[in-house]
Structures are given as structure tokens and as C-alpha cells.
Design a protein that fits this description.
Structural class: mainly alpha
Order of helices and strands: HHHHH
Distance between the termini: 16 Å
Oligomer: single chain
Strand content: under 5%
Number of strands: 0
């Protein structure tokens, strides 16, 4: 499917955007209440940054938030997991 889309439209598919969004929502809920406008805006902002090729900046921002907020335990594990996932797959997240 990806090869067909690349050949037809001349674009590279973004690495399973649903998985990326799932990770971003997990991260957003560390900072904001589920269902809140703040969480939605946080995810929207990071999604747009990723779509425009700023994956590294999104990763950097998440990691800085862990440090600046002094997060530990489950919150730290969640955010570091999201940052690691995005970092590992950053080369595949491009248009």
C-alpha cells in the first residue's frame, strides 16, 4: 500500500499516524486532564510540528518537560517512552 501511494501521489506516508497520535495523547494526559481543551491543543500542536518535520523539537520538548517538572515514576516513564518512540522513528515521520 505504501509503495502504491508513494508512486501515485509522490509522497512518503507518515509512520502510522494513529500510533503517533496514541503516544501524543498519552503524553498530553500526563500534563492535562483527559478531555480537556488544553490536552487537545497540546496534541494538535505536537502533531502539526511532527507533520512539518520538527520531530526532534517535539522529542526535545517532552524530555525538557520531564526534567523541568522533576517528574518521576509513572509520569516520567510515560513521557520518556513517548520521546523514545518518536526519536527511534523520526526518520520515518516525513512527508
Amino acid at each position: 500500500m505504501q509503495i502504491l501511494v508513494e508512486r501515485t501521489l509522490g509522497v512518503t506516508l507518515i509512520l502510522d499516524l494513529l500510533h503517533v497520535l496514541e503516544k501524543l495523547w498519552k503524553a498530553a494526559y500526563v500534563f492535562y486532564a483527559e478531555g480537556s481543551l488544553a490536552a487537545e491543543l497540546w496534541v494538535l500542536d505536537r502533531t502539526l510540528r511532527i507533520l512539518f518535520g520538527d520531530v526532534s523539537q517535539v522529542v526535545k520538548g517532552i524530555r525538557q518537560s520531564v526534567t523541568k517538572r522533576g517528574l518521576f515514576g509513572a509520569k516520567r516513564k510515560t513521557l520518556c517512552g513517548v520521546a523514545d518512540y518518536l526519536h527511534r522513528n523520526r526518520a520515518r515521520m516525513r512527508l
